[in-house]
Amino acid sequence: EAALEITARYCRTEMEQYGQCVASSPASWQRDCHQLRLSMSRCAAAHPIVQQIRRDCAEPFAAFEQCLRENQAAVVKCSEHVSAFLLCADRV
């Protein structure tokens, strides 16, 4: 939750738009939400705390993204990956 709170604090609009897009496009979110993801990434890249979380938690985040790619129609299967990333982020 800490990582999401930090990202939300600095990039709330971008994060909300991306989240809404993913939720509304379960089968095609990767294509449909690509630009919003880039926007959120650019925003997060501008903040040192978010950069440190992304750097220190790159492995669990990459595993989460891989899970999303493999389960595009059932993203709920990736909850363990989200938990691992958030646990890492809490330690930063």
TrEMBL record:
GO terms for biological process: cellular respiration. GO terms for cellular component: mitochondrial intermembrane space. Coiled coil: none annotated. Residues 4-48 form the IMS import disulfide relay-system CHCH-CHCH-like Cx9C domain. This is CHCH5 protein. It comes from Probosciger aterrimus (Palm cockatoo). The lineage of its organism: Eukaryota, Metazoa, Chordata, Craniata, Vertebrata. The gene is Chchd5.
